[in-house]
Amino acid sequence: MRAYGLTDIGRNRAVNQDYIYYTQNPVGQLPNLFIVADGMGGHKAGEQASSCAVEVFLQTAKLKKSGSPISIIGEAIREVNHEVYVRSKSSPDFEGMGTTLVVAVIIGTALYVANVGDSRLYVIGDTMRQITRDHSLVEEMVSMGEIDKIEARNHAKKNIITRAIGVNSKVMADFFEVELAEKEAVLLCSDGLTNMIEEADIFHIVNHKQKTTKEKVLHLIELANKNGGRDNISVILIEPDEFEVQVC
Questions:
Q1: How many CA atoms lie within 13 A of 195 on its CB side?
Q2: Alpha carbon distance 44, 53 (integer Å)
Q3: Whole-model pTM?
Q4: pLDDT in tens, 10-39
Q5: Region for 208 from its dihedrals, namely left if φ exceeds 0, alpha if ψ lies in -120 to 50, beta otherwise
Q6: What dotted CATH number matches 2-128+164-239?
């Protein structure tokens, strides 16, 4: 498989509070690892929360000598939440800081996913499936039938999330195990992408067979900025080898 990731400050923010990590090499018992974290809080606090989350996740995963992917991810998320929560109490500058987190590991055709917050993971092939469920007030309103998906995109309370890493002493993550079909790609992203681009456009760009993985990521971020770039934008795209253009 091929993978490429990038985070961009966008057009309106003074600081990039997103943080990403991806590797196709082993991290402890995990054969690969892909993470997007979207920090929140005052000046520098969100940046600290997202970078801390990724760093502690890596430290915890590297120390695990056994366990299933889901159990390793779950333990790492608990450690991450504890560390970010403790840091949020250590200084007035960090008060109220937190971060979203979406994590993926691929073993063969099995995709293991965990998320907290509203950063997302999609599986994209002949169709586009959102695997994660946003932990947000607007998503709850959609689930209860109070508004529809179209109203949700521009709702005034869209940025209110109901779960985040580090806000409380304990956090509940959602876990998913997905069987990937041949040629399906995996996309992790912060809401700086999905708030700026329609899912149909994301689907079209990812399925552009004449572009490399890197070119697709750059195109997604460029379009998000072209459409306003109101937030930081983070994207990690993972594709099977046969989905790539071979460059001689």
A1: 22
A2: 14
A3: 0.91
A4: 999 999 999 999 999 999 999 999 999 999
A5: beta
A6: 3.60.40.10
